[in-house]
Amino acid sequence: RQRLLRARLCSLRDLYTPVDADGDGFTNWDEVYIYKTDSELVDTDEDWLSDGVELSVLNTDPLKADTDGDGVTDGDEDSDSDGLSNANELNLFGTNPLNGDTDGDGLSDGEEANIHDTDPLLPDTDGDGLTDTDEIDRHKTDPNSADTDGDRPNDGDEINTQKTNPKVADPDQVGPNDIEQTDLNTTHHQV
């Protein structure tokens, strides 16, 4: 009888001072009495997804590693069909497993991570003023290098301001290169 009273007091205490021992976003009380998950394990069913993510983001069952029974664990599923598993999106890349293009740049998270080695959280990985998609599909420049041809103006400035080729440092092959030409033009106008 005393053990039962002690258990009830602990439950009441958790109601007033919520504790989340495993850090999955749900209090111990909610895990034990509402969701029936293990309050000491962040991932009760061991599918590489936290109980909190399964319940609040993916709407999967934290008690079943394979909620839909298709032979693929919830962590290995690809809910947004972008080429990355749910577990990799959440645990490795920090992307949204329900949005195939987390940064909205026109490339799927999977294309960015697996093919182009660009950041699926940044629409302009190299910060040159051109989206990764524009660099890859339109301009054929390097989305991981702000200055594809290495002549100092970044690709965005070359395309949008200077109207020079961001893939060729010295387009006429007789010098000066784009940056030297820009410096000469600036000096000439200042005289």
Secondary-structure map with pairings?
Layout: H1 2-16, H2 28-35, H3 51-58, H4 86-93, H5 109-116, H6 132-139, H7 155-162, H8 178-190
Folded structure, characterized:
It contains 8 helices and no strands. With 191 residues, the chain is mainly alpha-helical. The radius of gyration is 26 Å and the shape is elongated. Mean pLDDT is 87; it is low at 187-191. It starts with a helix and ends with a helix.
Helical coverage, percent range: 25-40%
- In DSSP terms (H or I, runs of 4 or more residues), the helix count works out at 8
Order of helices and strands: HHHHHHHH
- Overall spatial form: elongated
Largest sheet: none
CA-based gyration radius: 26 Å
Beta-strand level of the residues, as a percent range?
under 5%
**Helix- and strand-based class?**
mainly alpha
List segments where confidence is low: pLDDT < 50 over at least 5 consecutive residues: 187-191
Span of the ends, CA to CA:
97 Å
Q: State the total count of DSSP E strands.
A: 0
Mean pLDDT: 87
List keywords for this structure.
191 residues, 8 helices, disordered C terminus
TL;DR of this structure?
With 191 residues, this protein is mainly α. It has 8 helices and no strands.
